[in-house]
Design brief:
The complex is a heterodimer of chains A (400) and B (364). Chain A is an alpha/beta fold and 400 residues long. Chain A folds into two domains: 355 residues, 3-Layer(aba) Sandwich (Peroxisomal Thiolase, Chain A, domain 1), CATH 3.40.47; 33 residues, no CATH class. Chain A has twelve helices and 15 strands. In chain A, the strands form four sheets. A six-stranded mixed β-sheet of chain A has the order 8-15-14-9-10-12. A five-stranded mixed β-sheet of chain A has the order 1-7-6-4-5, with helices on both faces. Chain A has a two-stranded antiparallel sheet with strand order 2-3. In chain A, a hairpin with a 4-residue loop joins strand 14 and strand 15. Chain A is globular. Chain A starts with 5 loop residues before the first strand and ends with a strand. Chain B folds into two domains: 196 residues, Thiolase/Chalcone synthase (Peroxisomal Thiolase, Chain A, domain 1), CATH 3.40.47; 115 residues, 3-Layer(aba) Sandwich (Peroxisomal Thiolase, Chain A, domain 1). Chain B is 34% helix and 23% strand. In chain B, strand 1 and strand 2 form a beta hairpin. The radius of gyration of chain B is 20 Å and the shape is globular. The termini of chain B are close together. Classes of the chains: A alpha/beta (400), B alpha/beta (364). Chains A and B meet through helix 3, helix 4, helix 6, strand 5 and helix 7 of A and helix 4, helix 5, helix 6, helix 7 and strand 7 of B.
Chain lengths: 400, 364
Amino acid sequence: MRRQVFVRGTGAYTPLGETWRATADVLATGATAIRPIAVFDATGFPCTVAAAIPEPLLEEDRRLPFARRAAREAWEMAGVRCEPERIGVFVGAESGRGRFATVLGLARAARSSSGDFDHARFGREARVFAERIDESVLSPSGVASRLAAEIGARGPVETVSLACASGSAAIVEAARAIRLGLCDVALCGGVGADVDPLMVAGFGLLGILSARGVSCPFDVHRDGFVVGEGAAMLVLAAERGDAACELAGIGRSLDAHHLTAPDPEGDGAARAMEAALRDAEITAVDYVQAHGTSTPLNDRIEVAAIKRVLGAGAARASISSSKGALGHWVAGAGALGALYAWEAVTRGTVLPTAGLVTPDPACDLDHVIGRALTKDVHAALANAFAFGGANSCLVMRRCA
Amino acid sequence: MRVPVIAAAAISPWGTGWRGLGQVLAASAAMPGAPGVPAELPGVPTELPLASPKARKMMSRGACLAASCLGELLRGVAWRRAECGYFLGVGASGGSLEDVIALLAASIADGAFSLERFGDRGLAACNPLLAFQLMNNFTMCHGAILEGIGGPNAALFSRGAGTTAALIEAVHAIAGGDCEQAIAGGADCALHPVTRAELARDGFVARGLVPAEGAALVALGAAGPPGATVVPGAPGGGSSAAPPIAVIEGCAIASGDARPLADAIDEAVSRAREGETLGEVDLVVIAPWGPPVAAELRAWTGANAANAAVIDSSSLGDALAASPALAWVAALDLLAAGRARRALVLGAGTDGDVGAVVLSRGAA
């Protein structure tokens, strides 16, 4: 018989609050954290707004302080007692970055008088900049390793780098590890800290940011996403304790289609949703936390895939996206979506899609607009779809 | 849990292909750091017949290696690719520094860096596809798109043990019924200037680590129809009627945090054997990070598998996330060649974690 996986703790550190509880209370009002970028001068950038955490942090890499705070909240809420060897840590994260000045210094060190890359010069001069960056700053695995040390975990420690699906996929890995008996307790989730010039520039190069500076998933006027940042963490366990919610289903797939565009038929997304529902042995949910990036193509295709998977049940499921209020956390986005689903299942609070005013007729589902909806949610589906075509879906269900 | 290995592929400084790789390593006396061995191995050629020039421009070196290796693995293999799993140990993806320099040069105003110019002209001067080189999961996704791999997946960041975690995921994905076949391995490049600077700064180069690049993959699952058939003469494996190359008896990782490496090896091997003793092995392939760790792995082997031949994959240089997978493939070559019956592969990374894989000839 398969081991059940219970959600014992949740935590978040977001632009709207230092805890998940504080954040959820603000989200329920329909508030948004998206503001003009103040952490650097974004004049001339393709998008000049973001959902940023304004607090100055001393660390070179902001991923760790974000993740540490979210993890602490989740761990304290869980209150689990377990042998260190039976505790795992699974974190969705991409590579970190040093401070912008350090990165610029590295680039300058490599530039010859002709402007080309000069290996010899780089070797001589880059060292002084490289030495400013602690190993853990650049390594995606630095976050998971540090968190494991801080909670005393000696079980499996994994870092999943699947772009926008990283956080969700890390939760999948954690659930699998518990089911397989590789650990009994898992701290898992994701972190994104991408409100910096390099990432805003990088996403701008791709032409996928909102030129209007508005994140409004499923709205007829949507024109791209807005970068956000923060961390979301969960504690999963094989023992129920006082948990009210279980992670009942997990599913993953690859589009195998295109690096940025989703499969036009939504095939990969649909296969991941179907796998998660099949894994949970259900065919309907009361709420879908959509990936909903606010890009024209993604939202339309996701809605089509949801309809295909849920059939007539799609009309009965409420739908919302975190990205209207908190922007796109990239590696942390899927874990944030899991918290939205957990909130709906455990508290009956379906958080709204901020920014959504006029739903696109091509995205006609039961959107939660304005303020949170109070609803009896027995099961919820949380989607995460990544650049590159990796898809990861979770089903949260109320404990019997 | 025993899972058959039905095909393999590798790209390394030794060349493209897995047959003969283990035998070359077994015959090699030259170790990195020894006189006559270069401090850095040259890059290896890659073939990407399916990739358009635009796709190539979007690839980091690690992605290029992974995609090329995946093409090699699947050449001639008739699989239901849409359901096939793919689990890859990846490194930090490195973008082109030429692009970063161009971006920087266009961002200078009045002799000083201008953030405003950076956001405007700097972006215009840069390859618009640069971002695709920087995301770690694209090391996996480029190849998956080219080859149509659509099943459960994960790109696991690896500085050694993470690649074994990818293998563990693949094994469990098959055992758990998520997919009938899965591909697992690693791909990475230590020749990127920033990576080399990091390795130098952290003292690995001074301690004898030789930066290199490579990729290695294994195909796991049912050896025969309906899911997997291997065309006779295909580079990845043998004929459809042939038995699997080997069987994975077990695989596991263990944390090396704040304890002797030998203790972590003990735990990893015990987990791989699900609590049973290792039993007799006649081959141990080690994938260390430089000579000091190699010495510890050899010492453990001497104490725990004294009769086994020991092969050190670091003769191929250190290709970071690819190194453990190259070591598996070297072991597979020696098993397939009849040079060994049962092998233990040990990989250790900079984080001190250890991965252990037990392979043997025979049916699953």
